[in-house]
Amino acid sequence: MAAHARPAGPPRLTAAEFDVLYRRLLSRSAWARGERGALDALTPARVLAATREVRTGRTVTLAAPVETLPGPDNPEPARHRMTGRPGDDASGGLHFARDSFAMNVHGDADSHLDALCHVIYDGTLHGGVSASSVTPGGAEALSVEVAHDGIVGRGVLLDVPRLRGVPWLEPGDHVSADDLTAAETAQHVHVGEGDLLFVRVGHRRRRNELGAWHAADARAGLHPSAMEFLAERRVAVLGGDGNNDTAPSSTEGIGFPVHVLAIHAMGLHLLDYLQFEDLAPVCEAEGRWSFLCVIAPLRLPDATGSPVNPIAVL
Fold first, then answer.
1. Quick one: signal sequence residues (predicted)?
2. Which of 69, 144, 162, 253 sits 20 to 30 Å CA-CA off 86?
3. Contact at 8 Å (CB) between 222 and 258?
């Protein structure tokens, strides 16, 4: 695979430059300001067309295993507790094994989906909905429930480390719009309207091989300007194997500029901390980087997100 020149360094955006970018993307995404945001692009015709991506029937997970042990990037791990085991009762007859599960959905380790109510920016949610709709009892608008019928469409994986000839991008590195365009060319695939775009930076492979680190302080992700590519193509969903945002932030005064642009301005549901180490070799072997993708968030009517296990069907 041919190496693609690495940017000299993340070009920082001033607050004023970010505001211009935000307003431009907001204007270009006027079609996606409804309750479902950019999911409106997933019309029945596009879902039906996505099923034609299936050729072998092979299924591959895009999720990482849920972690129950603490680590540098996971100080509040999921809690799994057995509430009943067959051995707890010595008598004969019928018994059931039972357990309970609790999770910090928006952590830096577990695969999850961000709903459109997740980002509050300048006092509003996506589409100008008042931030007061997020109450101590939950989100009264734009919760993960808007995706209760699932998210099904044509998935496209763009592998930026493959493009650059490296196993992963180092923390602090960023993906540009040029990277995304070059990855398309190298992989002979085109991102189109209504696609579910997945961008690999190699976060999971680095974590698996070198161990966990404090990803809140240092991680690879998209540069805010790369969102111009997504607006041009009118994608429906963005997912990454990191947080999608680079850390440290490349934008003055805003820690998560990609989240602001994607969720608040463009109406994109985000998938954070996926893993593509199972999918990428399959795509490489089959010589194709598009597939049917099925995402089924839990039905949590007032929640700002959900754990997910997206499935690629090739």
1. none
2. 69
3. yes
183 vs 166: CA distance, rounded Å: 13
Question: Which of these, 269, 296, 229, lies nearest to 41 by C-alpha position?
Answer: 269
**What are the residue ranges of helices labelled H in 72-175?**
160-164
Q: What percent of the chain has pLDDT over 90?
A: 92
H helical segments located in the chain: 15-28, 44-50, 160-164, 177-187, 203-210, 227-233, 257-259, 279-286
Q: Which sequence spans correspond to the domains of the chain?
A: 15-73+107-313
- Are 259 and 237 within 8 A, CB to CB? no
Indicate the pLDDT class of residue 90, thresholds 50, 70 and 90: low
How far apart are the C-alpha atoms of 311 and 278, rounded to whole Å?
A: 11
Rounded Cα distance between 212 and 206, Å, is: 8
Q: Where are the beta strands (DSSP E) in 92-178?
A: 98-102, 112-114, 134-135, 138-139, 151-159, 174-175
7, pLDDT greater than 90: no
| Alpha-carbon distances of 148 from 36, 154, 297, 306, rounded to whole Å | 11, 18, 7, 11
Query: 9 or 219: which carries more pLDDT confidence?
Result: 219
Q: Is 177 helix (H, G, I), strand (E, B) or coil?
A: helix
pTM of the entire structure?
0.94
CATH topology of domain 15-73+107-313: Glucose Oxidase; domain 1 (3.50.30)
Question: Exposure of 38 by Cβ count < 10 A (0-12 exposed, 13-18 middle, 19+ buried)?
Answer: buried
For 270-310, how does the pLDDT look when each residue is reduced to its tens digit (9 = 90+)?
999 999 999 999 999 999 999 999 999 999 999 999 999 99
